[in-house]
Write the C-alpha coordinates for this entry.
Amino acid sequence: MANGGFFVMTGRLAFHACGVLVLTFYGWRVCPFIERLEFVELAGILAAAMLLGALARAGVEPWLERREGRDLNAGLLRPGTQWFFLELGAWVVAGVAFSAWNLAWYGFPIFKSGTKMLAGCVTLGIFAAAHHLLERQRLLMDRLVESGNLRALRTDRFDSIATRLVRFLALIAASGAVVILLLFQKQFLEYSQSLLRGHPYSFRAVVLEVVYVTSVLLICGWLVARRLAANLARLFALQLAALEEVRSGRYDTFVPLVSNDEFSRIAQGTNEMIEGLKERQRLQRAFGKYVSPQVADAILKSEQGAELGRGREAEVAVLFTDLRGFTALSEGLHPSQVVELLNEHFTGIVEAVHRRGGVVDKFIGDAAMAVFGLQGPEGCCDAAVEAALEMRDTLTALNARLAGRGLPSVEHGAGIHFGPVVAGNIGSPDRLEYTVIGDTVNTASRLESLTKELGRPLVLSEAVLERLSSQNRARFDDLGERAIRGKADKLRLYGAAML
Protein backbone atom coordinates (compact mmCIF):
# COMPACT_ATOMS: atom_id res chain seq x y z
CA MET A 1 0.00 0.00 0.00
CA ALA A 2 2.92 2.32 0.77
CA ASN A 3 4.42 1.77 -2.68
CA GLY A 4 1.00 2.29 -4.25
CA GLY A 5 0.60 5.58 -2.36
CA PHE A 6 3.99 6.72 -3.62
CA PHE A 7 2.99 6.11 -7.23
CA VAL A 8 -0.31 7.93 -6.69
CA MET A 9 1.58 10.93 -5.32
CA THR A 10 4.09 10.81 -8.19
CA GLY A 11 1.31 10.73 -10.77
CA ARG A 12 -0.42 13.65 -9.08
CA LEU A 13 2.76 15.77 -9.04
CA ALA A 14 3.36 14.97 -12.71
CA PHE A 15 -0.16 16.15 -13.56
CA HIS A 16 0.39 19.38 -11.62
CA ALA A 17 3.75 20.08 -13.28
CA CYS A 18 2.31 19.49 -16.73
CA GLY A 19 -0.73 21.55 -15.75
CA VAL A 20 1.48 24.56 -14.98
CA LEU A 21 3.07 24.37 -18.44
CA VAL A 22 -0.22 23.76 -20.24
CA LEU A 23 -2.00 26.59 -18.41
CA THR A 24 0.90 28.96 -19.07
CA PHE A 25 0.55 28.54 -22.83
CA TYR A 26 -3.23 28.40 -22.52
CA GLY A 27 -3.32 31.73 -20.60
CA TRP A 28 -1.28 33.41 -23.28
CA ARG A 29 -3.65 32.22 -26.00
CA VAL A 30 -7.07 32.93 -24.42
CA CYS A 31 -6.47 36.07 -22.35
CA PRO A 32 -5.10 39.34 -23.78
CA PHE A 33 -4.28 40.47 -20.24
CA ILE A 34 -2.25 37.43 -19.25
CA GLU A 35 -0.25 37.46 -22.48
CA ARG A 36 1.43 40.62 -21.18
CA LEU A 37 3.22 38.58 -18.50
CA GLU A 38 6.60 36.94 -18.99
CA PHE A 39 6.72 33.15 -19.23
CA VAL A 40 8.69 32.64 -16.01
CA GLU A 41 6.51 35.09 -14.11
CA LEU A 42 3.30 33.47 -15.31
CA ALA A 43 4.58 29.94 -14.61
CA GLY A 44 5.69 30.98 -11.12
CA ILE A 45 2.28 32.42 -10.26
CA LEU A 46 0.56 29.26 -11.53
CA ALA A 47 2.94 27.03 -9.56
CA ALA A 48 2.23 29.01 -6.38
CA ALA A 49 -1.52 28.74 -7.03
CA MET A 50 -1.17 24.98 -7.56
CA LEU A 51 0.74 24.71 -4.29
CA LEU A 52 -2.06 26.55 -2.48
CA GLY A 53 -4.63 24.14 -3.94
CA ALA A 54 -2.48 21.17 -2.91
CA LEU A 55 -2.25 22.48 0.66
CA ALA A 56 -6.03 22.87 0.82
CA ARG A 57 -6.45 19.31 -0.41
CA ALA A 58 -3.87 18.00 2.07
CA GLY A 59 -5.94 19.36 4.93
CA VAL A 60 -8.92 17.19 4.00
CA GLU A 61 -7.15 14.01 2.84
CA PRO A 62 -6.33 12.58 6.31
CA TRP A 63 -9.99 12.64 7.27
CA LEU A 64 -10.98 10.71 4.13
CA GLU A 65 -8.10 8.27 4.64
CA ARG A 66 -9.22 7.51 8.19
CA ARG A 67 -12.81 7.08 7.11
CA GLU A 68 -11.87 4.70 4.31
CA GLY A 69 -9.47 2.81 6.57
CA ARG A 70 -12.20 2.13 9.14
CA ASP A 71 -14.50 0.56 6.59
CA LEU A 72 -13.10 -0.86 3.38
CA ASN A 73 -16.63 -1.42 2.15
CA ALA A 74 -17.16 2.35 2.28
CA GLY A 75 -14.84 2.55 -0.68
CA LEU A 76 -17.33 0.44 -2.58
CA LEU A 77 -20.47 2.19 -1.42
CA ARG A 78 -18.98 5.62 -2.21
CA PRO A 79 -16.86 4.82 -5.25
CA GLY A 80 -14.38 7.70 -4.97
CA THR A 81 -16.83 10.56 -5.51
CA GLN A 82 -15.36 12.46 -2.58
CA TRP A 83 -11.82 11.85 -3.81
CA PHE A 84 -12.80 13.07 -7.27
CA PHE A 85 -14.25 16.33 -6.02
CA LEU A 86 -11.41 16.81 -3.54
CA GLU A 87 -8.85 16.66 -6.36
CA LEU A 88 -11.01 18.81 -8.63
CA GLY A 89 -11.46 21.27 -5.76
CA ALA A 90 -7.68 21.64 -5.46
CA TRP A 91 -7.53 22.73 -9.11
CA VAL A 92 -10.48 25.10 -8.61
CA VAL A 93 -8.70 26.64 -5.61
CA ALA A 94 -5.61 27.07 -7.79
CA GLY A 95 -7.69 28.80 -10.50
CA VAL A 96 -9.41 31.11 -8.00
CA ALA A 97 -6.12 31.94 -6.28
CA PHE A 98 -4.46 32.72 -9.61
CA SER A 99 -7.33 34.97 -10.72
CA ALA A 100 -7.47 36.72 -7.32
CA TRP A 101 -3.71 37.41 -7.42
CA ASN A 102 -3.92 38.84 -10.92
CA LEU A 103 -6.82 41.06 -9.87
CA ALA A 104 -5.07 42.31 -6.74
CA TRP A 105 -1.54 42.64 -8.14
CA TYR A 106 -2.05 43.44 -11.83
CA GLY A 107 -5.64 44.65 -11.90
CA PHE A 108 -6.73 42.04 -14.43
CA PRO A 109 -10.56 41.92 -14.52
CA ILE A 110 -12.16 38.80 -13.08
CA PHE A 111 -14.75 38.21 -15.81
CA LYS A 112 -12.48 38.98 -18.75
CA SER A 113 -9.39 37.20 -17.43
CA GLY A 114 -10.09 35.19 -14.27
CA THR A 115 -12.98 33.14 -15.63
CA LYS A 116 -10.91 32.03 -18.61
CA MET A 117 -8.11 30.71 -16.42
CA LEU A 118 -10.62 29.14 -14.06
CA ALA A 119 -12.20 27.30 -17.01
CA GLY A 120 -8.77 25.96 -17.98
CA CYS A 121 -8.07 24.83 -14.41
CA VAL A 122 -11.46 23.11 -14.18
CA THR A 123 -10.92 21.29 -17.49
CA LEU A 124 -7.50 19.98 -16.52
CA GLY A 125 -8.77 19.35 -13.00
CA ILE A 126 -11.47 17.02 -14.31
CA PHE A 127 -8.85 14.90 -16.07
CA ALA A 128 -6.51 15.01 -13.06
CA ALA A 129 -9.34 14.10 -10.67
CA ALA A 130 -10.50 11.22 -12.88
CA HIS A 131 -6.95 9.89 -13.17
CA HIS A 132 -6.38 10.21 -9.42
CA LEU A 133 -9.73 8.56 -8.69
CA LEU A 134 -8.84 5.58 -10.88
CA GLU A 135 -5.49 5.23 -9.13
CA ARG A 136 -7.22 5.34 -5.75
CA GLN A 137 -9.67 2.69 -6.89
CA ARG A 138 -6.78 0.46 -7.96
CA LEU A 139 -5.23 0.84 -4.49
CA LEU A 140 -8.60 0.04 -2.92
CA MET A 141 -8.83 -3.11 -5.06
CA ASP A 142 -5.44 -4.27 -3.81
CA ARG A 143 -6.38 -3.54 -0.20
CA LEU A 144 -9.64 -5.46 -0.53
CA VAL A 145 -7.90 -8.42 -2.15
CA GLU A 146 -5.29 -8.50 0.62
CA SER A 147 -7.82 -8.04 3.44
CA GLY A 148 -9.48 -11.46 3.02
CA ASN A 149 -13.05 -12.40 4.03
CA LEU A 150 -14.35 -10.72 0.89
CA ARG A 151 -17.34 -13.05 0.72
CA ALA A 152 -18.97 -10.83 3.36
CA LEU A 153 -18.64 -7.60 1.37
CA ARG A 154 -21.80 -6.42 -0.33
CA THR A 155 -22.45 -3.31 -2.36
CA ASP A 156 -25.71 -1.56 -1.50
CA ARG A 157 -25.33 1.24 -4.01
CA PHE A 158 -24.95 0.21 -7.63
CA ASP A 159 -22.94 2.54 -9.84
CA SER A 160 -22.89 1.45 -13.47
CA ILE A 161 -19.67 1.73 -15.47
CA ALA A 162 -21.66 3.13 -18.38
CA THR A 163 -23.21 5.81 -16.15
CA ARG A 164 -19.81 6.85 -14.83
CA LEU A 165 -18.40 7.07 -18.34
CA VAL A 166 -21.34 9.17 -19.51
CA ARG A 167 -20.91 11.56 -16.58
CA PHE A 168 -17.19 11.88 -17.20
CA LEU A 169 -17.59 12.41 -20.95
CA ALA A 170 -20.32 15.00 -20.34
CA LEU A 171 -17.99 16.94 -18.02
CA ILE A 172 -15.15 16.76 -20.54
CA ALA A 173 -17.39 17.80 -23.41
CA ALA A 174 -18.81 20.74 -21.47
CA SER A 175 -15.47 22.00 -20.19
CA GLY A 176 -13.78 21.43 -23.54
CA ALA A 177 -16.54 23.35 -25.29
CA VAL A 178 -16.10 26.25 -22.86
CA VAL A 179 -12.35 26.35 -23.53
CA ILE A 180 -12.88 26.28 -27.30
CA LEU A 181 -15.48 29.06 -27.03
CA LEU A 182 -13.07 31.17 -24.98
CA LEU A 183 -10.42 30.69 -27.65
CA PHE A 184 -12.79 31.76 -30.39
CA GLN A 185 -13.99 34.71 -28.30
CA LYS A 186 -10.43 36.02 -28.04
CA GLN A 187 -9.78 35.42 -31.72
CA PHE A 188 -13.07 37.09 -32.65
CA LEU A 189 -12.07 40.19 -30.68
CA GLU A 190 -8.68 40.23 -32.38
CA TYR A 191 -10.35 39.75 -35.76
CA SER A 192 -12.79 42.62 -35.08
CA GLN A 193 -9.93 44.89 -34.06
CA SER A 194 -7.99 43.94 -37.18
CA LEU A 195 -10.95 44.87 -39.37
CA LEU A 196 -11.39 48.20 -37.61
CA ARG A 197 -7.71 49.02 -37.99
CA GLY A 198 -7.50 47.65 -41.50
CA HIS A 199 -4.79 45.16 -40.57
CA PRO A 200 -4.64 41.69 -42.13
CA TYR A 201 -5.72 38.80 -39.86
CA SER A 202 -4.01 35.38 -39.81
CA PHE A 203 -6.37 32.45 -39.42
CA ARG A 204 -3.33 30.21 -39.05
CA ALA A 205 -3.13 31.26 -35.39
CA VAL A 206 -6.70 30.08 -34.82
CA VAL A 207 -5.95 26.67 -36.30
CA LEU A 208 -2.79 26.30 -34.21
CA GLU A 209 -4.62 27.21 -31.02
CA VAL A 210 -7.45 24.75 -31.70
CA VAL A 211 -4.91 22.03 -32.49
CA TYR A 212 -3.05 22.83 -29.27
CA VAL A 213 -6.15 22.65 -27.06
CA THR A 214 -7.44 19.54 -28.83
CA SER A 215 -4.07 17.84 -28.43
CA VAL A 216 -4.01 18.60 -24.71
CA LEU A 217 -7.53 17.21 -24.30
CA LEU A 218 -6.66 14.07 -26.27
CA ILE A 219 -3.47 13.42 -24.31
CA CYS A 220 -5.26 13.87 -21.00
CA GLY A 221 -8.08 11.65 -22.20
CA TRP A 222 -5.58 9.00 -23.25
CA LEU A 223 -3.96 9.02 -19.80
CA VAL A 224 -7.34 8.57 -18.12
CA ALA A 225 -8.39 5.85 -20.57
CA ARG A 226 -5.09 4.03 -20.00
CA ARG A 227 -5.63 4.05 -16.25
CA LEU A 228 -9.24 2.90 -16.69
CA ALA A 229 -8.12 0.05 -18.97
CA ALA A 230 -5.60 -1.08 -16.35
CA ASN A 231 -8.32 -1.16 -13.68
CA LEU A 232 -10.67 -3.10 -15.92
CA ALA A 233 -7.87 -5.55 -16.75
CA ARG A 234 -7.36 -6.04 -13.01
CA LEU A 235 -11.06 -6.81 -12.53
CA PHE A 236 -11.04 -9.26 -15.44
CA ALA A 237 -7.89 -10.91 -14.05
CA LEU A 238 -9.56 -11.49 -10.66
CA GLN A 239 -12.59 -13.00 -12.36
CA LEU A 240 -10.58 -15.22 -14.71
CA ALA A 241 -8.26 -16.40 -11.92
CA ALA A 242 -11.22 -17.64 -9.90
CA LEU A 243 -12.81 -19.31 -12.93
CA GLU A 244 -9.52 -21.07 -13.71
CA GLU A 245 -9.45 -22.41 -10.16
CA VAL A 246 -13.02 -23.66 -10.57
CA ARG A 247 -12.21 -25.20 -13.96
CA SER A 248 -9.40 -27.13 -12.25
CA GLY A 249 -11.86 -28.48 -9.68
CA ARG A 250 -10.75 -26.27 -6.78
CA TYR A 251 -13.88 -24.80 -5.21
CA ASP A 252 -12.21 -23.12 -2.22
CA THR A 253 -11.73 -19.93 -4.23
CA PHE A 254 -13.94 -16.88 -4.78
CA VAL A 255 -13.97 -13.65 -6.75
CA PRO A 256 -13.15 -10.64 -4.55
CA LEU A 257 -15.80 -7.92 -4.52
CA VAL A 258 -13.73 -4.82 -5.23
CA SER A 259 -16.22 -2.53 -6.98
CA ASN A 260 -19.89 -1.62 -6.92
CA ASP A 261 -20.55 -1.81 -10.65
CA GLU A 262 -21.36 -4.58 -13.11
CA PHE A 263 -18.21 -6.42 -12.10
CA SER A 264 -19.47 -6.76 -8.54
CA ARG A 265 -22.67 -8.37 -9.79
CA ILE A 266 -20.68 -10.74 -11.98
CA ALA A 267 -18.43 -11.53 -9.00
CA GLN A 268 -21.41 -12.17 -6.71
CA GLY A 269 -23.01 -14.41 -9.33
CA THR A 270 -19.75 -16.30 -9.80
CA ASN A 271 -19.32 -16.73 -6.05
CA GLU A 272 -22.85 -18.07 -5.75
CA MET A 273 -22.11 -20.47 -8.60
CA ILE A 274 -18.92 -21.62 -6.84
CA GLU A 275 -20.84 -22.16 -3.60
CA GLY A 276 -23.39 -24.20 -5.54
CA LEU A 277 -20.66 -26.32 -7.12
CA LYS A 278 -19.03 -26.78 -3.72
CA GLU A 279 -22.35 -27.91 -2.24
CA ARG A 280 -22.88 -30.24 -5.18
CA GLN A 281 -19.41 -31.71 -4.65
CA ARG A 282 -20.11 -32.15 -0.93
CA LEU A 283 -23.42 -33.87 -1.65
CA GLN A 284 -21.81 -36.07 -4.27
CA ARG A 285 -19.09 -37.15 -1.85
CA ALA A 286 -21.63 -37.80 0.90
CA PHE A 287 -23.96 -39.53 -1.56
CA GLY A 288 -21.04 -41.62 -2.81
CA LYS A 289 -20.67 -43.15 0.64
CA TYR A 290 -24.14 -44.67 0.30
CA VAL A 291 -24.10 -45.47 -3.40
CA SER A 292 -21.25 -45.85 -5.84
CA PRO A 293 -19.60 -42.56 -6.87
CA GLN A 294 -20.45 -43.36 -10.49
CA VAL A 295 -24.11 -43.80 -9.59
CA ALA A 296 -24.11 -40.64 -7.49
CA ASP A 297 -22.57 -38.70 -10.36
CA ALA A 298 -25.06 -40.13 -12.85
CA ILE A 299 -28.04 -39.21 -10.65
CA LEU A 300 -26.77 -35.67 -10.01
CA LYS A 301 -26.11 -35.12 -13.71
CA SER A 302 -29.40 -36.61 -14.83
CA GLU A 303 -32.01 -34.14 -16.05
CA GLN A 304 -34.69 -36.23 -14.36
CA GLY A 305 -32.68 -36.63 -11.14
CA ALA A 306 -33.94 -39.34 -8.80
CA GLU A 307 -37.33 -40.07 -10.33
CA LEU A 308 -39.29 -43.26 -9.86
CA GLY A 309 -39.58 -45.48 -12.90
CA ARG A 310 -36.67 -44.08 -14.84
CA GLY A 311 -34.37 -46.84 -16.08
CA ARG A 312 -32.27 -48.03 -18.98
CA GLU A 313 -31.34 -51.42 -20.34
CA ALA A 314 -27.72 -52.55 -20.32
CA GLU A 315 -25.66 -55.71 -20.69
CA VAL A 316 -23.46 -56.11 -17.63
CA ALA A 317 -21.51 -58.57 -15.54
CA VAL A 318 -23.00 -59.03 -12.07
CA LEU A 319 -20.84 -60.32 -9.21
CA PHE A 320 -22.20 -61.64 -5.92
CA THR A 321 -19.87 -62.41 -3.02
CA ASP A 322 -20.70 -63.76 0.44
CA LEU A 323 -18.68 -64.62 3.54
CA ARG A 324 -18.71 -68.21 4.79
CA GLY A 325 -18.43 -68.92 8.48
CA PHE A 326 -19.21 -65.34 9.36
CA THR A 327 -22.37 -66.16 11.31
CA ALA A 328 -20.49 -68.48 13.65
CA LEU A 329 -17.69 -65.98 14.02
CA SER A 330 -20.02 -63.09 14.84
CA GLU A 331 -21.72 -65.03 17.65
CA GLY A 332 -18.61 -64.68 19.78
CA LEU A 333 -18.03 -61.01 19.01
CA HIS A 334 -19.45 -57.77 20.35
CA PRO A 335 -21.73 -56.02 17.80
CA SER A 336 -19.21 -53.21 17.42
CA GLN A 337 -16.52 -55.80 16.58
CA VAL A 338 -18.83 -57.36 14.00
CA VAL A 339 -19.33 -53.96 12.36
CA GLU A 340 -15.58 -53.34 12.42
CA LEU A 341 -14.90 -56.71 10.80
CA LEU A 342 -17.50 -56.17 8.10
CA ASN A 343 -16.12 -52.72 7.36
CA GLU A 344 -12.63 -54.16 6.91
CA HIS A 345 -13.98 -56.82 4.54
CA PHE A 346 -16.18 -54.44 2.55
CA THR A 347 -13.38 -51.89 2.25
CA GLY A 348 -11.34 -54.42 0.29
CA ILE A 349 -14.35 -55.28 -1.86
CA VAL A 350 -15.14 -51.64 -2.67
CA GLU A 351 -11.53 -50.85 -3.55
CA ALA A 352 -11.27 -53.89 -5.82
CA VAL A 353 -14.51 -53.06 -7.63
CA HIS A 354 -13.80 -49.34 -8.06
CA ARG A 355 -10.28 -49.97 -9.33
CA ARG A 356 -11.79 -51.83 -12.26
CA GLY A 357 -14.57 -49.41 -13.06
CA GLY A 358 -17.31 -51.37 -11.36
CA VAL A 359 -20.18 -50.22 -9.18
CA VAL A 360 -20.93 -51.61 -5.73
CA ASP A 361 -24.68 -51.90 -5.94
CA LYS A 362 -25.51 -52.94 -2.38
CA PHE A 363 -24.46 -54.72 0.78
CA ILE A 364 -26.77 -57.43 2.10
CA GLY A 365 -25.63 -58.51 5.55
CA ASP A 366 -22.19 -59.99 4.92
CA ALA A 367 -22.81 -60.25 1.16
CA ALA A 368 -22.14 -57.70 -1.54
CA MET A 369 -23.33 -57.17 -5.10
CA ALA A 370 -21.24 -55.41 -7.74
CA VAL A 371 -21.98 -54.51 -11.35
CA PHE A 372 -19.49 -54.08 -14.18
CA GLY A 373 -20.22 -52.59 -17.60
CA LEU A 374 -22.85 -49.94 -16.93
CA GLN A 375 -20.87 -47.59 -19.17
CA GLY A 376 -20.38 -50.29 -21.83
CA PRO A 377 -19.96 -54.08 -21.89
CA GLU A 378 -16.41 -54.12 -23.29
CA GLY A 379 -14.06 -55.84 -20.86
CA CYS A 380 -16.61 -55.99 -18.07
CA CYS A 381 -16.29 -59.77 -17.56
CA ASP A 382 -12.51 -59.58 -17.23
CA ALA A 383 -12.95 -56.69 -14.79
CA ALA A 384 -15.38 -58.74 -12.68
CA VAL A 385 -13.06 -61.76 -12.56
CA GLU A 386 -10.00 -59.66 -11.70
CA ALA A 387 -11.95 -57.89 -8.96
CA ALA A 388 -12.88 -61.30 -7.52
CA LEU A 389 -9.22 -62.32 -7.61
CA GLU A 390 -8.25 -59.20 -5.68
CA MET A 391 -11.04 -59.83 -3.17
CA ARG A 392 -9.45 -63.22 -2.50
CA ASP A 393 -6.12 -61.53 -1.79
CA THR A 394 -7.72 -59.04 0.61
CA LEU A 395 -9.54 -61.92 2.32
CA THR A 396 -6.19 -63.63 2.91
CA ALA A 397 -4.88 -60.46 4.54
CA LEU A 398 -8.06 -60.20 6.64
CA ASN A 399 -7.66 -63.78 7.85
CA ALA A 400 -4.08 -63.01 8.88
CA ARG A 401 -5.36 -60.15 11.02
CA LEU A 402 -8.08 -62.37 12.50
CA ALA A 403 -5.50 -64.99 13.39
CA GLY A 404 -3.47 -62.29 15.16
CA ARG A 405 -6.52 -61.58 17.31
CA GLY A 406 -7.04 -65.24 18.07
CA LEU A 407 -10.17 -65.46 15.88
CA PRO A 408 -11.08 -68.14 13.33
CA SER A 409 -10.65 -67.44 9.63
CA VAL A 410 -13.48 -66.90 7.16
CA GLU A 411 -13.94 -67.83 3.52
CA HIS A 412 -16.02 -66.38 0.77
CA GLY A 413 -17.70 -67.47 -2.39
CA ALA A 414 -18.35 -65.44 -5.52
CA GLY A 415 -20.59 -65.94 -8.53
CA ILE A 416 -20.52 -64.00 -11.81
CA HIS A 417 -23.05 -63.94 -14.64
CA PHE A 418 -23.34 -61.77 -17.75
CA GLY A 419 -26.59 -60.63 -19.33
CA PRO A 420 -29.18 -57.90 -19.73
CA VAL A 421 -30.45 -55.85 -16.78
CA VAL A 422 -32.47 -52.71 -16.21
CA ALA A 423 -30.62 -50.01 -14.25
CA GLY A 424 -32.71 -47.35 -12.57
CA ASN A 425 -34.50 -46.04 -9.50
CA ILE A 426 -36.53 -48.64 -7.65
CA GLY A 427 -38.80 -48.07 -4.66
CA SER A 428 -41.45 -45.53 -3.74
CA PRO A 429 -41.58 -41.76 -4.35
CA ASP A 430 -40.39 -41.28 -0.75
CA ARG A 431 -37.63 -43.89 -0.71
CA LEU A 432 -35.65 -44.77 -3.83
CA GLU A 433 -32.73 -47.04 -4.48
CA TYR A 434 -30.61 -46.94 -7.61
CA THR A 435 -29.98 -50.57 -8.56
CA VAL A 436 -30.03 -53.10 -11.37
CA ILE A 437 -32.72 -55.76 -11.68
CA GLY A 438 -33.35 -58.69 -13.96
CA ASP A 439 -32.76 -62.40 -14.39
CA THR A 440 -29.01 -61.77 -14.69
CA VAL A 441 -28.91 -60.53 -11.09
CA ASN A 442 -30.86 -63.54 -9.82
CA THR A 443 -28.62 -65.95 -11.73
CA ALA A 444 -25.43 -64.40 -10.34
CA SER A 445 -26.85 -64.78 -6.82
CA ARG A 446 -27.68 -68.45 -7.50
CA LEU A 447 -24.13 -69.07 -8.77
CA GLU A 448 -22.68 -67.65 -5.57
CA SER A 449 -24.92 -69.99 -3.58
CA LEU A 450 -23.51 -72.95 -5.56
CA THR A 451 -19.88 -72.24 -4.68
CA LYS A 452 -20.05 -74.16 -1.41
CA GLU A 453 -21.82 -77.12 -3.04
CA LEU A 454 -19.33 -77.20 -5.93
CA GLY A 455 -16.33 -76.63 -3.68
CA ARG A 456 -15.12 -73.70 -5.75
CA PRO A 457 -14.55 -70.16 -4.37
CA LEU A 458 -15.54 -68.61 -7.71
CA VAL A 459 -18.16 -69.86 -10.15
CA LEU A 460 -19.17 -68.19 -13.39
CA SER A 461 -21.45 -68.91 -16.30
CA GLU A 462 -20.54 -69.75 -19.88
CA ALA A 463 -21.74 -66.27 -20.91
CA VAL A 464 -18.95 -64.82 -18.78
CA LEU A 465 -16.25 -67.29 -19.88
CA GLU A 466 -16.89 -66.55 -23.56
CA ARG A 467 -16.02 -62.90 -22.95
CA LEU A 468 -12.83 -63.45 -20.94
CA SER A 469 -9.32 -62.98 -22.18
CA SER A 470 -7.33 -66.18 -22.79
CA GLN A 471 -5.29 -65.55 -19.64
CA ASN A 472 -8.33 -65.33 -17.38
CA ARG A 473 -10.14 -68.13 -19.21
CA ALA A 474 -7.30 -70.52 -18.40
CA ARG A 475 -8.01 -70.15 -14.68
CA PHE A 476 -11.33 -72.00 -14.87
CA ASP A 477 -12.38 -75.62 -15.19
CA ASP A 478 -15.53 -76.85 -16.91
CA LEU A 479 -18.00 -77.98 -14.26
CA GLY A 480 -20.57 -79.17 -16.80
CA GLU A 481 -24.22 -78.24 -17.00
CA ARG A 482 -25.96 -77.58 -13.74
CA ALA A 483 -29.54 -76.96 -12.74
CA ILE A 484 -30.07 -73.49 -11.35
CA ARG A 485 -32.85 -72.92 -8.84
CA GLY A 486 -35.57 -70.81 -10.41
CA LYS A 487 -34.43 -71.47 -14.01
CA ALA A 488 -35.96 -74.02 -16.37
CA ASP A 489 -32.80 -74.62 -18.40
CA LYS A 490 -29.47 -75.82 -17.12
CA LEU A 491 -26.40 -73.63 -17.38
CA ARG A 492 -22.84 -74.67 -18.14
CA LEU A 493 -20.70 -73.48 -15.28
CA TYR A 494 -17.00 -72.96 -14.76
CA GLY A 495 -15.12 -72.81 -11.51
CA ALA A 496 -11.72 -71.74 -10.27
CA ALA A 497 -9.97 -74.29 -8.09
CA MET A 498 -7.66 -71.71 -6.47
CA LEU A 499 -7.61 -67.94 -6.79
Notes: The mean pLDDT is 78. The CA atoms of residues 308 and 431 lie 9 Å apart.
